[in-house]
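README: folding subset

This subset contains proteins for which both the sequence and a predicted structure token string are available. Records are stored as plain text. Below is the entry for TM2 domain-containing protein (112 residues), shown exactly as it appears on disk.
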Amino acid sequence: MDSNKVDMFIMSNSKFFESHQLQFIRERLITIDDSHWPMLSTMQLKDPTTSLIVSILAGSLGIDRFIIGDTGLGIGKLLTCGGFGIWAIVDWFMIQKATREKNMQKIQHLMY
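--- output ---
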């Protein structure tokens, strides 16, 4: 793929990934062919900041986990009222990383 397209993608979507993953993403995207570009450019990535806000406001209901695609964990948080509040508080610190990991899984699925 053209390095200008890859750099543009990295610049506009860097907040959706961990900083140490960006070089790996760039290297992999350069090696794939241009037929993946339409899927890559329209890919919906989850915003870690939005996940944090939802986690703070409605984390005890598991909505934050439902948003990032962790349906099983969302149901668990919903049934236990956020692990009796403890799990909800822990997720305030963990949800952004979990969101970035889900985004990385999504882009890896496209690359392979």
